[in-house]
Amino acid sequence: MSKGCLAANEWICGEYVRSRQEELTDATLQHIGITVASVGIGLLIALPLAFLARRYRVAASPLLALTTILYTVPSLAMLALLVPMLGISVSVVVTALVLYSLTILLRNILAGLESVPEEVRESARGMGYGPLRMLLTVELPLSLPALMAGVRIATVSTVAMTTVGGIIDFGGLGNLLFSGLDSVFKAQVLTASVICVVLAIVADLLLLGLQWLLTPWARSRSRKPVRARADDAPSDSAEAEAPAGATPLAGKAV
Amino acid sequence: MGVVADTWSWLTTGENWSGTGGVWDRLGEHLFLTLVCMVIACAVALPIALWLGHIGRGGALAINISNVGRAVPTLAVLVLLTISPLGRSELWPTVIALVLFAIPPLLTNAYVGMREADRDVVEAARGMGMSGGQLLARVELPLAYPLIMTGVRTATVQVVATATLAAIAGGGGLGRIITEGFNTYRTPQVVAGAVLVAVLALLVEGALVLLSRWLDPMRRRTAGGPASGAADADAAAGRGVPVSATS
């Protein structure tokens, strides 16, 4: 059975996974590398941009408009536009993915900063907090759930979008999709697709765990409403949970 | 700068626009695919979302379908469908993939819009003796309209983008200009195709923003009133902004 599945070009083939283990590992590692680099750089750019947009309100809407326009450009077109500028290299793929993740991250960080209650800000100011200290010790931690929601959305869609980089051979598992398409290699296409989805799920779960570690106060609070809820508005806790999970966003079309 | 000049000359050469495989031909394919798939996706997703939102069930499904849609690479689905038996026809893999990826944003946004319709208003309408159908048509739908249209806009832009990718797997559309350029190492053609696709996506997005404003059922009622501004600001500050707007 398993002996002939490569020759028979079957969809599920253990022999393929065994014999191409190295190729699969390399592609997966490249995929992870591209994703981590893209979201990481995106975050490094989005954070200062969000702080700037928050401090100088006039900058906010042009910045959001620009990133939305960039986000609307389909990924294949984005890659094609970047190739003449950067040559055929991994930086084309990373740049495109950074631009996409930037949009998601910027919006979520801004929304998180907006959601910090004014009273909290007032009391911090009353306690003598300067703008920088307030940003780092009050506003940033309180907006962490929204930020992490953004990081999760950006990461999951970046994992999926990296595949398009296969058109210039820098797409991680996408490379296997492209070569599998050319040679009608069913096992290769299915295996690469499945690994892609698994990568996205694992990354999402890891980030969820990271968020849990980073927001110890949210853990104890999630238990509290049960006690407080009896007479308080029961809808309150449900709404507080919503932003992270109930994000009615479509994700980037690949 | 050579690339810019070459791209410009590609775009201004008449032969590239006319005939089979010309820009007009590919644009026609692209728009036709987008329209057909959006009609199918809306016909499938919106009734389900409105019904689920109306009865208030299935929230987990409506929300999670978006997360699933995000995690599955469009390209993988296109390639899988193309090398499956369905791939014998050029059209089906593209249509199926486009519809599949248009459904999540439609479903999630419409569902969230229905659920976020002001409960007090809905209760008041019920208290006035409105039936389920009246409630849906005259209260919940108008209130959910902005998010439903956000879903339609998001899904359409997604379909335009995915239709571009379909060219990789042998489908038609403007993406074909890019992939042919890649295969023949003609950079000006690649860039010209990319410019066309990007402009199309932006135009579609802009057109839908205008269309949804024009069709807004609340437009006449709240026009000029101070309430409209307040409600908009409220909606913008309160909910889906970080997400719904990132189409």
TrEMBL record, chain B:
Residues 223-240 have a biased composition (Low complexity). The chain crosses the membrane at residues 31-53, 65-85, 91-112, 159-178, 190-211. InterPro entries: ABC_transp_perm/SBD, MetI-like, MetI-like_sf. It is found in: Cell membrane; Membrane. Residues 27-208 form the ABC transmembrane type-1 domain. The keyword Transport applies. PROSITE patterns: ABC_TM1. GO terms for cellular component: plasma membrane. It is a multi-pass membrane protein. Residues 223-247 are annotated as: Disordered. Pfam families: BPD_transp_1. GO terms for biological process: glycine betaine transport; transmembrane transport. This is ABC transporter permease.
